[in-house]
Amino acid sequence: MSLGYGNPYSNWRYILLSQFSILFISALLSVFPPQYYIYGYVIYLVVVMSITFFISFRSNPLLKERKYMGEIMKSRTIFEEKDAKEIMEKDEEYIKKYKESLKRNGYFMLYFVVYLAIILVIYDDVLGIYRKMFAANHLELFLVFFVTLDAITLINIFLSRKVMKGATSQTMAPTKYRVTERGIISNDATGVFLHARHLPNSEVTENREKRYVEIKSNTIKLPYDIRLYTKDIDRLLDAIERVKKIEIKRQQSSSSQN
Question: Does residue 223 contact residue 198 with C-beta atoms inside 8 Å?
Fold first, then answer.
């Protein structure tokens, strides 16, 4: 599967979750005394992390696909590329995009650290000012915290988009991989895999000059862009075609039984 730079706030579930988080923290800061903050934060973290995991699993098809990894790994190997790194490094265009991606991720991490540091520095002062101004009215204090936190969230979204501007789905290129009867799986740290059931509907292209085969998704529901560099492009293409034929026969047999 390919990695992408999705904006979490493009998903309405995450927008609702962010608003719930702001409501909860605003209520915690405005109603409860400071000695109860730690308990409130623990409850908040447990609830939000549980909801986030559930939303991610339900809305991200790439996570659902991981259950098929074992099936791919256990199947009989048709083709194996043990070292495509040297071939990949000769593709200057890909290496350039890969370095730009690493640089962009580095900028984003730096921005996040600076953003978090600023929040931590001003947190106590702002909290103290608000408490002095609205100590007599919990509702006003709640509204002030809510508006402030919502504004911080909007600023964060705006700055995140600026930092990640121009980021697109990244083509994944494993340096070691296997083609089995049930799909494609990497043997390196990229964690790339693609189940055979997606191959019949995938777009498969080849570049003999740069010695790779690229497999792309034809649907936005399950995005992937996998580039397989190899020393033997003909054998790789034959292996992929063989897996596609096996899968098509399996799907036809399954539908005829139903």
Answer: no
How far is residue 147 CA from its own chain's centroid? 29
**pLDDT tens, 54-65?**
766 665 555 667
- At residue 7, φ and ψ (nearest 5 deg) are -90, 115
Whether residue 172 is contained in a domain is answered as no
**Domain count across the chain:** 2
If asked whether residues 186 and 147 sit together in one domain, one would say: no
Rounded Cα distance between 160 and 131, Å, is 30
Q: Read off the pTM.
A: 0.67
Q: What is the pLDDT of residues 170-209, one digit of tens each?
A: 788 999 999 999 999 999 888 889 999 999 989 999 999 9
Q: How far apart are the first and last CA of the chain?
A: 30
What tens digit of pLDDT does each residue of 132-142 get?
787 778 788 88
Check if the beta carbon of residue 126 is closer than 8 Å to that of residue 148: yes
